Amino acid sequence: MSFATIAVEQLTEEQAAEELARLAAEIEEHNRHYHTDDMPVITDAEYDALKQRNLAIEARFPALKRADSPSDRVGGAVLEKFEKVAHRVAMLSLDNAFSEDDVRDFVARVRRFLKLSENVPLPMTAEPKIDGLSLSLRYEAGQLVTAATRGDGAVGENVTANARTIRDIPQVLKGEAPDVMEVRGEVYLTKADFAVLNDRQAAAGKQIYVNPRNTAAGSLRQLDTSITASRPLKFFAYAWGECSALPAETQMGVVEQFRDWGFSINPLMKRCDTVDELIEHYRLIEAERAGLAYDIDGVVYKVDDLALQGRLGFISRSPRWAIAHKFPAETATTVLTDIEIQVGRTGALSPVARLEPITVGGVVVSNATLHNEDYIAGIGSDGQPIREGRDLRVGDTVTIYRAGDVIPKVLDVDLSKRPANSEPYVFPETCPACGSPATREVNEKTGRLDSVRRCTGGLICPAQAVEKLKHFVSRNAFDIDGFGAKQAEAFYHAGLVKNPAEIFTLAARDEASELTKLKNREGWGEQSAANLFAAIEDRRSVDLQRFIFALGIRHVGEGNAKILARTYQSAAAFVEAMKAGHDLESEAWEDLVGIDGIGPTVAHALVEFFGEPHNAAIVDELLTHVHPKDAEPVASDSVFAGKTIVFTGSLERMSRDEAKAMAERLGAKAAGSVSKKTDLVVAGPGAGSKRKKAIELDIEVIDEDEWFARLGE
Ligand code: IVH
User: Fold this and answer.
1) Which fold has domain 461-538?
2) Is 643 a catalytic residue?
């Protein structure tokens, strides 16, 4: 008999003991699927829910805690790792378009950035977006030397031995090749090969794979190369990284050269002259989709002219010169069985729909996001009705959709199937984790209540603390090997690490401790504990940008963290300015809101964070353990390196955005307003108050021609 559906508060002691036994076995099984087989069968949220339930029962019946309690166990069997490879040129992701309008907006944006009028041709390429995993192949003197996965875009895994087993990947480039050439593309498995592989798995009584993409990923990331070799992986080349001499001046030209070097290139890639042609090609690819041998999930458009690509550059992680036009998401109908509330790192209460499991796009889905309280009630973020005002209730039959990798969403509800006794959902007004009141702030801009309800428990809320810790160690933050979300949670609940600073005292405390040492804890041994301490040691020095992002300040994502790192350059200067900026009359505040790209909302969030003494104390403490690397000024040989530049008035040869992007590439900072810190003002016709202020402050003012002259153009 299972008591899985009985609420923790209602379990008898006897039932609780049985539940703990069941949970220990079940969690152990999922650990194995996740860590050893690389094939989780439940989502992270479901896994977390099992762990949470186990913890809650243990909290209620401490005497029943088992010797093999999953709360004490961190991770699974440790695999030997792949070596890391730093990408010389970052591997980027693509921005998405979901409609024809989005595509037209994208092309218009490109034209605006380049100041290209409608009558100037702007050829673009259109090609299928392959649903596989990207791989970067480095050739030196025409010989394959390294193959690396994307990883976090900056650092990937060295899978060279495995890549050599893929027949589509030449070991040697045919004909003439540059000294250094990094060819990038997608590793994939055909639908037919995937089916054969699954038949084989089923015949052997083994678990079947979810979809071709995950299988391709699992096949490439095998420590046993013979397994990779036994999988019929394929590769399409479509992009490049570092390269000592480009073989052509257009996207199409380079890809054709890939073919001549011996790569497979996608036959559906086409050069188009107008947006209408792009859309037409999208429709054609969409029509062919089902009949293609491999999975695709959209069409990628790229500016064909490489000189224009160079001018367009990048915005945080994606190029301005490309976009992925995604196919419509698949939908499915299922029953909403429950609504659960999760508490995020900034206290946001996020409702999650628990669903009767259903397959959407080849993946089994059992939960979906419900965004916020208003979304459940049928109100959009603009205060207007959504779903014609239909609310969502437990027991409802709902349509869900899933686009790519993102969390599934609930689209609509079928009222004809609503159970007669259903009740509107009542959103909690207290935090389910700490019991503090949860409130909705008034949005200053709109005057309306914010759609998100937040826990006001702040520092006393354990859910916020755990989420902050998870964020701190996450991939784009401190990224500590062997210290992921699961470990963050376990260490927090075991009382070992309560805040980020304590991560860096863990080894010393472990050394000194009379209590259970990590190596003696369930799931750990001498070696894994030593590895973890070494990995932590290794992260005592991180990029300033990661450090700022890791703090988990509201509104400070990777993009803003990068801007802040570039502006303040050192952790000490950043922290000092944020503390001083709490005084809204201060120069520090004025500088902060003057930074191009940092608006008042972000600026307020920053100074409020540092104005909270506990936060400031943890950051100070953290800085005694870690030493963020000063942000390096880029292109230090340029005459503009390190300078703060303000562009104002109308520019003729470039758009304002291109001017700013150009300044940043030269290692300068583009600011939105003129202050004592400004070094140079580039003023076009019509420049007004900013030019005046610059003259008052005795700051050099030049025109656009002079700017280009100094650039040497
Ligand atoms: S171009 C700088 N072309 O999509 C742009 N990417 O969301 C580099 N992908 O990580 C990417 N097919 O793994 C490009 N024809 C294609 C693609 C493609 C699939 C993947 C790639 C990338 C992801 C971005």
Assistant:
1) DNA polymerase; domain 1 (1.10.150)
2) no
